[in-house]
Amino acid sequence: MSSAFLQQLLSRRDTWRGRDLDGAVRGGRPTGFAGLDRLLSQGGWPVHGLVELLCPLPCPPLLHLMLPVLAGDDPGARVIANPPERPCADTLARAGVPLARLLVLHGERDGLLRACHEAAASDALSVLLLWAPAGALPAGTLRRLHLGAQQGRCLLVLARPRRVARQPSPAPLRLGLECPAPGELAVTVHKQPGGRPGDRCHLTLLPEHLRRAPPATASLAALTRRPRPALEAPPPRPLAPPPPELRP
């Protein structure tokens, strides 16, 4: 390899120089939390692809962590798939999430994973937040989700149990989450390009206006059960008089 070609490679913005954080690609999606942005080598969430959040499921604070990116300016749709409880429409609206472009998805395991892959690869989504269904997720399934999200330029965030932390994964970014106190979240880096495993930060999840809002995993009735107008029976039609030949 010639020195000129090597210098050309090193001058590229997408060349990662091992553990050199300055050589990592910046320009990620802001997380909405300054401490987390500083922790991540891209300065935020990846623009697209698979991210794994390893936490004690169901981990309700996870949705609060993702509210800023769900409320981002990207015009694409948002999907919350297989949440442990119905998200609260009022909390989502207060956080700026565009409810008109939000879909909450439920389904059986295989159908759910297939739908998430197709949605992420469709180029119609901005963010897909998926709570992993019960059972092991093979490496091939994770790889397809990652490639689909890359193809569709979608950020696919997958919540998985902490016990899978030692299992290999194609996700370039894997974070561990712990809840030391209500409204707080401890984040640990398990894997990221240009980052050091074990780096940590502590986040305060709920700004003041959200502390007064209902929990993020309350009823979604405002989104899924809009009241329907009562059906009124039409007024009775008057009986037509019988023809003359049938009159008594």
Write up what this structure looks like:
About 15% of the residues have low confidence. It contains 8 helices and 8 strands; from the N terminus they run H-H-E-H-E-H-E-H-E-H-E-E-E-E-H-H. The protein has a single domain, classed as P-loop containing nucleotide triphosphate hydrolases (Rossmann fold). An 8-stranded mixed beta sheet has the order 3-2-4-5-1-6-7-8, sandwiched between helices. The longest helix has 13 residues. It is globular and about 60 Å long. By secondary structure, it is α/β, with parallel strands linked by helices. InterPro entries: P-loop_NTPase.
The CATH topology assignment is: Rossmann fold
- What is the overall number of helices? 8
Assess the beta-strand content as a share of residues. Answer: 15-25%
Overall number of strands: 8
CATH architecture: 3-Layer(aba) Sandwich
Largest sheet: 8 strands, mixed
- Structural class category: alpha/beta
Q: Give, in order, the helices and strands.
A: HHEHEHEHEHEEEEHH
Q: How would you name the CATH homologous superfamily?
A: P-loop containing nucleotide triphosphate hydrolases
CATH class: Alpha Beta
Strand order of the largest sheet: 3-2-4-5-1-6-7-8
Radius of gyration: 25 Å
Query: How many individual domains?
Result: 1
What would you call the shape?
A: globular
Distance between the termini: 112 Å
Q: Which segments are poorly predicted (pLDDT under 50) over 5 or more consecutive residues?
A: 13-17, 19-24, 208-214, 218-237
